[in-house]
């Protein structure tokens, strides 16, 4: 199941410990098979067995954690795909309300009319109305109207752009 660098760190550590002490090592998800050479001391065999037990425990822990349900992991604080339940998106709602009010203001400034589709295909106010309300104009920004760096955030060319 595990191959190369995809092996868990515990498997790699156990294999290295076994290679140092006994020689050849084969790995599967359930067990580490050891082929012992004749010149291996009892202490090296004991080290290899300890590494094998550590690996087996790590595999059991990994499998148990992998099978946990998402809500159990969220309760433990391991991960979360959503915002905390006690946080409300007030900022987003406020920005949406402001942009909607500004859109109504744009249409009101345009004498409650939309420009013809050929003039503004977004179904909104005229270019002059947008300029009057603070649309970005590099020329005017350089003249000192720095508020034009912020006001375009809330302006919309029309209802198609707004939705």
State mean pLDDT (0 to 100 scale): 77
Principal-axes shape call: rod-shaped
Number of helices: 7
Coarse structural class: mainly alpha
Report the portion of residues in β strands. 5-15%
The radius of gyration computed from the alpha-carbon positions, rounded to a whole number of angstroms, is 33 Å
Summed up, the domain count is 2
The amount of helix comes to: 40-55%
Strand order of the largest sheet: 1-2
C-alpha end-to-end distance: 49 Å
Write structural notes for this entry.
The mean pLDDT is 77. A two-stranded antiparallel ribbon has the order 1-2. With 163 residues, it is mainly alpha-helical. Helix content is 50%, strand content 6%. The chain has seven helices and two strands, in the order αββαααααα. Helix 1 packs antiparallel against helix 2 (42-66). It folds into two domains: 4-76, no CATH class; 90-162, no CATH class. It has helices at 9-22, 42-66, 70-76, 90-109, 127-132, 138-142, 159-162, and strands at 23-27, 32-36. The two termini are 49 Å apart. The radius of gyration is 33 Å and the shape is rod-shaped.
């Amino acid at each position: 199941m595990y191959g190369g660098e995809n092996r868990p760190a515990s498997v790699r550590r156990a294999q290295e410990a076994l290679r140092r002490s006994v020689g050849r090592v084969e790995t599967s998800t359930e067990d580490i098979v050891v082929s012992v050479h004749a010149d291996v001391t009892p202490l090296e065999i004991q080290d290899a067995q300890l590494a094998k037990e550590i690996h087996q425990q790590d595999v059991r822990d990994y499998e148990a954690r992998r099978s946990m349900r998402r809500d159990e992991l969220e309760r433990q604080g391991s991960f979360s795909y959503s915002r905390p339940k006690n946080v409300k998106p007030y900022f987003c709602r406020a920005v949406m309300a402001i942009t909607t009010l500004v859109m109504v203001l744009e249409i009101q400034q345009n004498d409650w009319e939309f420009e013809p589709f050929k003039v503004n295909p977004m179904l909104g106010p005229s270019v002059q109305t947008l300029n009057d309300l603070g649309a970005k104009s590099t020329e005017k920004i350089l003249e000192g109207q720095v508020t034009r760096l912020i006001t375009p955030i809330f302006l919309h060319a029309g209802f198609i752009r707004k939705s």
